[in-house]
Amino acid sequence: MSEQTALAQRIADTIRPAMLSGLQDAQLHGPGGAQHISNWADWIAATVAEHVVQPIAAERDAFADRVDTLSHIAKRHKEGYADAVRDKQQLEARIEALEAELAQLRTAEDAHQS
Question: Average pLDDT for residues 81-100, to the nearest whole number?
Answer without folding.
Answer: 97
